[in-house]
Every structure is written in structure tokens, then in C-alpha cells.
Amino acid sequence: MSERARVWLWRVVILVVLLAAWEWLTGIKAISRTPGLYWIDPFFISRPSLILKRFAYLASDQVRLSIWQMALSTVQSTLWGFVVGVSTGFAAGLILGRNERLAGIFDPYIVAFNSLPRIALVPLITMIFGFGLLAKIVLAWTIVFFIVFFNTFQGARSVDADLIHSARFLGGTDRQIMRTVIVPSALAWTFASLTPSISFALIGVVVGEFLGGESGGGLGYLIIQSLGTLNAADMMVALIALGVIGIVMALGIRQIEKRLLRWRPEYRDRT
Amino acid sequence: MKRSRIVLSSLTKTFRDGGREVAAVQDASFEVLDGEFVAIVGPSGCGKSTILNMIGGLVAPTGGVVEIDGVRVAASAPAHVGYVFQKDTVFPWRTVARNIAVGLEYRGVARAEQERRVREAIGLAGLGGFEDAFPATLSGGMRQRVALMRTLVVEPQILLMDEPFGALDTHTKINLHAELLALWQARRQTVVFVTHDLSEAITLADRIVVMTRRPGRVKLIHTVKLPRPRDVIALRESPAYAAEYGAIWHVLGEEFAERAS
């Protein structure tokens, strides 16, 4: 058996064991046969069978807002927040990274804004942008922007001066050097920030959805709604969906990274 | 009499080290003629790379003037000047072919012409089969070949080389000497070549500028009387080579000896 298959086998075994234990432990009743008295109460952590049932219900067309619509809304806002955050963070990082004076001027503002807990901004952002998609995107953006910005900034500052000199001797103009030396060199740093960025974008979006209400939709809304109805199964459905979304997005980024950074030895010969 | 292309007059460079002024180069004056291959040798820290950087406009002199073709070198890279660095400056994110093409790309040379010249350069450097390889997969010698061809492909008239083979093993170095001489013989660029390796300087150069240890002054300008074209291997065993080596080593040795005392 190959190493890869062995790893996968263990992953599956762990999953099955955990699910089975969960299902079994939440089914054992304590002391009497009175309903509601369990060793481990499924009221709080639900049960796999129950979660599946709720998932089937939420995925059906019996509900007003299906799980698919909610997942789509979450994914959409996350991707938008991510794309806008990465592109603005990258541009700002490049500009400030290559301009000593601008970097000096903006430094205290950037540090101050970045140390602000983003969750504290949620009410304000909701006030300004309403309860819809836009507020969630803005929230994700405020987080992603800084992560990407700081990394790109470092990357743009640490470009090897001799690479720039040699490009200049080869006849490169400032613009050409930016495109052929500084951007590719900084990209390696930027990419290191993308995986955490997508996770944080998702956090921003879900937090936005906690407050956003039904018009914003999304899995965060499902979680908050389930808190209102004390429905652990629905919460679990939302959490599992978020987990799946997180994995898929991280894998997608890794693919892009591998493609764009294929010149780096650590990305070669590895699949 | 050939015209002089590079003229250094009383070139001086001092650096600030803490509160102290440290002279790296002091009052260096010499000329490089058109099509001439000049090597600068000296003990490490003698400011020979600083001189090259001042010729290339990378470092501004504290005193004195560098002129290329009668024009004073300012803070930018003069046109028609190519520079090969000691450090690996091949772009790691570009393949061999795209690295060699980069200067042509900057100059807006048409795609087909780019490809033709890159193919020719790859053939000359013996890099065939590695066109699409990324630099990380190449040996140090091959990367330096790419750097050299990348510089030569834009056909600079003046070539500044800062210990380009300094990090390579002896065998690779000698191969590259032969290749560099063949390429130079064909085009006859004006070359200033900095090295701490005396045998390298004798093998390649028409004239050798010997520097003193810090602060670097010109100690001696020696004309190498070895005929061209030179066979880099056979050369080393010839008595003429030994005589050249002895003559300069005697002077250079004083500099190393002073350092030890």
C-alpha cells in the first residue's frame, strides 16, 4: 500500500470511528427511560443521523431559504471579499513597499486600524452598508486587505537590489522593472498570505451574517437562527458546510499557488 | 591609437562607517581603450568592486570623475553598458530562454527576432535543451552562463563584470574563460573585469590594473604580453604565462604581506 493510500485510510478510519462514537454515545439513556436524560445529551451536540435528516430537509424545497442558497451566499461574499481584499492589499503593499516616504506617512494609520478588532466594526459596517451582501464583503475586505498588505509590503521591500540593478542595465524602465522583477518577487510573499486570508474572509463573512438577518442569508444566519430555536442539528449542518467550503477554497488556492510559483524548487515535483 | 572609452580621473570614494570616514578608493586614475579587455585585481576590500560600481553609475563617487565616451557618468546606468554581477541575478521566476530574452523584451524587440537571438545565444552558451528550465534546477555555472548571455544578447559595447565567476569551481571557471574569450573575440566589446584571482586576470585581460589594499589606489598597470587568441588551458603551462604571473605576483604579494603585518 502506498504512503498516500495509508494516510487516506487512516483519515477515513478516524472519521468513521468519531461519527460512530458520536451516534452511539448520544443514544445511551441515563438512569431512567425518561426522554431527555442522556449520558451525552443530543440536545446540545445533536447526532449524525439527526444532522443528516435536517440536512435533507434544509436541502429540500420545503424551506424558504435552502442550505444551497445560504452556502452560495456565504461563498459568494467570501470570494468577493477575498478578491477585493487581495487585489487592494497587493496594490497598496507594492506601492508603499517601494516608496519609503509614503510608507513612513501611512505607518501609524495602518498599525492603528489593523489593531482594531474587526468584529467591533460589524455594527458600523451594517449601519453604513445595510444587511445585504455588500456589508459582508466589506467586512471580509477589512480583514483580508491587511493580511495581504503586510505580506506584500515585506515582499516588495525585500526585493534583491542587484536584481533591480541588473534589470536596469538590461534596459528596463521603472514600469518594466515593476512588472518583471518586483511583482514576481513580491508574489511569493503574497501567496504565503492567501491561505490565511481565505479563512479570515470566511470568518468576516460569517460574523457579518450573524448580524445580517435573512436578507443577507448565508450560513451564519442559519447558525444564529438555530440558536434562537435551540436547534443544534441545524447548527451542525451549517458548521459542517462551512468546513467543507473552507477546505475546497484552501485547495483551490493551493492549486493557483502551485501554478504561479512553479519556478520555486519547493513547488516542483510535488503533486 | 585607439580612442579611450572609459576614463577615470582621480576617482575617490569614502564611506561612512559609524562616525568615521573610511576611504574605499583613493585617487584612482586609468583609461580603458575601445575594444580593450582590462582586469582590476587586488586583495579583497581594496575597493575594486566599488570602482566598477562607480563606472556603472551604481555608486556616486565622492571625488573625481568617470567618463564613458566623454560623458560624465551620472546616477543611472549608461546606455550600451552591460553589467554582470558576482551574485546570481538571473530571475528565478523566468525560464532560461525567457531570462535571456528579458533585455530584448525591455527594448521592445519583435517576438520573432527575440526568439532568433535567444536561440543563437543558447547555442553559443551550450545551454541547448535547457530553454524551458527554471534557474533553480541549474548549476551555478549554467546560471552564470545565462546571466552572461542575457547581458550579451542586447549587444552592449561596454561590458562591466564584477567577479562573475567568483563563486564557481576551477573547472567550470576555466570553461567559462574559454567561452567568454571566444565571445569577446567575435564582438570585441570594451571590458572591465574585476577579480581577486590573478590567473583569471592574466588569462583574460590585455591590461591589468593592480590595486593596493584599502584604501584602494592604483599600484601598477601591467600590460599582458600574451598573444591572442589564447588557449586558456595551454596558456597556463607556457613560460610566458609564468613570467607574467611572477611579475604581478611580486607586486600583489606585497599587498597581501602588508595585510598580514
What does this entry show, briefly?
Chain A folds into 2 domains: 1-45; 48-267, MetI-like (MetI-like fold, Orthogonal Bundle), CATH 1.10.3720. Chain A is built from 12 helices and no strands. Chain A has helices at residues 3-25, 42-45, 48-59, 67-97, 100-115, 122-129, 133-157, 161-169, 174-192, 194-216, 219-228, 232-260.
Classify the beta-strand content of chain A into a percent band: under 5%
Q: What would you report as the Rg of chain B, rounded to the nearest angstrom?
A: 19 Å
Order of helices and strands of chain B: EEEHEEEHHHEHEHEEHH
Distance linking N and C termini of chain A: 18 Å
Which CATH class of the largest domain in chain A is shown? Mainly Alpha
Please report which band the strand proportion of chain B falls in: under 5%, 5-15%, 15-25%, 25-35%, 35-45% or over 45%. 25-35%
Low-confidence stretches of chain A: none
Descriptive account of the structure:
The complex is a heterodimer of chains A (271) and B (261). Chain A is mostly helical and 271 residues long. Helices cover 77% and strands 0% of the residues of chain A. Chain A has two domains: 1-45; 48-267, Orthogonal Bundle (MetI-like fold). The longest helix of chain A is centred in the first third of the chain and has 31 residues, at 67-97. The two termini of chain A are 18 Å apart. The mean pLDDT of chain A is 89. Chain B is an alpha/beta fold and 261 residues long. Chain B contains eight helices and ten strands. Chain B has helices at residues 48-55, 96-106, 111-124, 140-152, 170-187, 198-204, 232-237, 239-260; strands at 4-17, 20-33, 37-41, 63-68, 71-72, 81-84, 158-162, 190-195, 207-211, 218-223. A six-stranded mixed β-sheet of chain B has the order 6-7-8-3-9-10, with helices on both faces. Chain B has a four-stranded antiparallel β-sheet with strand order 2-1-4-5. The termini of chain B are far apart. Chain A binds chain B through residues 160, 162-163, 165-173, 176, 180-181, 184-185, 187, 262-265, 268, and chain B through 56, 58, 76-77, 79, 81-83, 85, 87, 89, 91-94, 102-103, 105-107, 134-137, 147, 150-151, 154.
